[in-house]
Design goal:
The chain has 232 residues and is of the alpha+beta class. It has a domain of 127 residues: Glutaredoxin (3-Layer(aba) Sandwich), CATH 3.40.30. 31% of the residues lie in helices and 17% in strands. The protein is globular, with a radius of gyration of 21 Å.
């Protein structure tokens, strides 16, 4: 049986100059942080134990940076798992979504490490040349961009609402099945209907490090601030 988080938190080493009130509050917070870490581990373990997901029957097609048309299975390379991010950069957009852009920057920084374990593909509705041009502008060198051929993928995975003309980001993980096919392992499924009042829908833990960093600050995330593509 694991030691309680409250007991572990008593091992904290106080900082010089701390008030008694700060020391007590920080120890109580530390206990909650230990519980949070344990809960994140429990959720990750539960995710890994998911039964086999739905088989991908449709032949989704994509265009790679060389203009070659490929299928979803081709994006795996020699890996068994494929992590994909569909970003909001449709052909009707003058510039891509700032939130997606903010997420892809850190993902680019970690891409070479991730690709030691899994395949990684960025999918978008804009021509792949347009996506790559923006990647060069941002200095991204380690992400592989693919253009969705048609809108079947975006529609089926709820990355596009044609009635409203809106795009949505889609984080999805696929795995190869024993019969040589592809199955969906996990997909982010938080929607606006599931969000707490006054908050944007987001999964847990948050995939974007921006928000995790701001959560460490006294100001927090705020309720009106969002990242931009440029700052002047």
């Amino acid at each position: 049986m694991s030691t309680s988080s409250s007991e572990l938190a008593t091992k904290r080493r106080p900082r010089p100059g701390e008030s008694e009130a700060y020391a007590q509050a920080r120890q109580e917070l530390l206990a909650q942080e230990i519980e949070l870490q344990r809960h994140i581990d429990r959720v990750a373990e539960q995710r890994r134990k998911l039964p086999p997901g739905p088989a991908i029957e449709k032949d989704y097609r994509f265009k790679d940076v060389n203009g070659t048309e490929v299928g979803l299975g081709d994006l795996f390379g020699d890996k068994q798992t494929l992590v994909t991010y569909f970003w909001m950069y449709g052909p009707e957009r003058e510039r891509p979504c700032p939130m997606c852009t903010n997420l892809l920057g850190p993902l680019n920084a970690n891409a070479n490490d991730l690709k030691q374990r899994v395949a990684l593909a960025i999918l978008g509705r804009s021509p792949v040349e347009r996506q790559v041009a923006f990647a060069r502008e941002r200095g991204w060198q380690h992400l592989q961009f693919h253009q969705t051929v048609g809108d079947d993928y975006a529609l089926d995975f709820r990355g596009l609402d044609p009635a409203k003309g809106w795009e949505y980001p889609v984080l999805a993980v696929f795995q190869k099945s024993g019969d040589g096919g592809v199955r969906l392992f996990w997909k982010g499924e938080m929607t606006g209907e599931m969000a707490d009042a006054g908050k944007d829908p987001r999964g847990g833990p948050d995939f974007a490090p921006l928000w995790s960093a701001l959560d460490l600050t006294p100001e927090g995330r705020g309720d009106k601030w969002y990242p931009r593509l440029e700052y002047y």
